[in-house]
Amino acid sequence: MGNAQEKPPGSGGGGGSRSQQTTAGSGTRSRGEGSVRKTQTQRAPEKGLANGTQRENSTVGGQEEQGSPAVDTSYLDAPAGALPPHLARLKNEGNHLFKHGQFGDALEKYTQAIDGCAEAAVDSPEDLCILYSNRAACYLKDGNSSDCIQDCTKALELQPFALKPLLRRAMAYESLERYRKAYVDYKTVLQIDTGVQAAHDSVHRITKMLIEQDGPEWREKLPEIPVVPLSIQQQHRDKPVSAEVAQARAARAAQEEVRRKEARFTLLKREGNDLVKTGQYQEALQKYSECLTLKPDECALYTNRAICLLKLNRFEEAKQDCDSALRLEPGNKKAFYRRALAHKGLQDYLSASSDLQEVLQLDPKVREAEQELEVVTGLLRQSLMNNTGHTPRV
User: Is 90 exceeded by the pLDDT of residue 79?
Assistant: First the structure.
C-alpha cells in the first residue's frame, strides 16, 4: 500500500474479490504485488519506517542530514503474544501506523504478518484472530466493508465470540445496509459486554429501520441470535483491562455523569420555577439550592433563589445571593434590583437607592425600578429626618 489516502481494492464497500487467497493456514489474499511495489517506490524516502527498521542518517543529494531528532522505535520490540520476533515487529508497526491514521500502510503490515504466520506454521489462533481483526479495522476505515466482513468472519472462526471482530463486522454490515445481520452481531456484542455504548446506539437505530423495512413482524425475519456461553462472558469480565479501554470507559462514564447531572438540573430548575409561580417559596428555595450543588456558577439560580428569600423576609441571605450573582455577571439588572429590595428590607435605603440607580443606568425603561426608587427615596428622606431630629445640637 502507499500512503494513508490510498484505498485497498474494492474500497467503498464494493466488496472487490480477493485474488490468490491462500488456504487454511493464512487465509490471506494477495493485494497485487506489482501495485504494492509501485507504491513503495513512489513513497518519499524520508517517510520514517520501512520493513520494521528505522531509517537513520537519511541523505539528500549525498549529504548527511544534520540535526534530525532520533525517532523512538522501541515499540517495535514489544512482545506480541506467541508471535516470533520478526512477526511481532510487523504487528507492532501495523498498530503504530494505524494509530497515526496510516490505514493503508498498517493493512500492508498486518497482511505481511498473516502471511508470515502461514510460512512459519505459527499455531496461535488468538494471535491470528487479532491480526485478522486488526486488518479488518483497516478495511473498515478505508470503506472496504466486504473485505472487512471476510476478515472478521475468519477471526471469529479462530476465536468464536471475540468482541472486536464481532463489533467491526456489525459496523461493516450496517454500512452495507445489511441491517438484519448487523442487528444480530450488535446483540451478540451486548451479551458479551453490556457496556459497549456504540452497540446500544446502533441497536436502537437499526430497530427503527427494521420496523420501517419489515413492519411489525420484523423480529421474525431476523437470523438466529447466537447464545453466548456463560464461560465466554466470564472470561471477558475477568480479562485485564488495557489502559486505552480503561480510559475509554472512564470517558464514557464521565459523559454519562454529565448527562445525568444535566437532566437532574433541568428538572429541579423547572420544578423551582413552577413552585415560585404558585407561591411555594420555601419549597422553591430548596429546589434552587439543590440546583446550585450541580451548577454553582449559574447566575440565574442566585437571582431566582433571592426572590424566594425576599418573599420569606430573609433579606440578608437574599443580599448575599445577589452579591454572588453580580460576581458572576457584574451587569445583571435582576441582581441589582433584587439586592435593592434586600437593602430596603434591611432598612439600608442609601444602598437600595444606589442599586436602583444602577438598574436605571443599565436600562432606563425598567418601570418597577423607577417606582421603587421613588419609594426608597422617600424612606431615605424620612430616615435622615428622624436621625437629624434625635441628633443633639452642638
Answer: no
pLDDT at 322: 97
pTM of the entire structure?
A: 0.49
C-alpha–C-alpha distance, residues 174 and 169, integer Å: 8
272: which 3 cell numbers? 423551582
Please write the tens of the pLDDT for every residue from 371-389: 999 999 999 999 888 876 5
Beta bridge pairs of residue 50: 53
What is the average per-residue pLDDT within 106-135?
94
Residue 354: all three cell numbers together: 444606589
Which of 154, 180, 156, 176 is CA-nearest to residue 166? Answer: 156
Check residue 174 and give its pLDDT. 95
Q: Could you report the per-residue pLDDT of 229-278, keeping only the tens digit for each?
A: 998 888 777 777 667 767 877 887 888 889 999 999 999 999 999 999 99
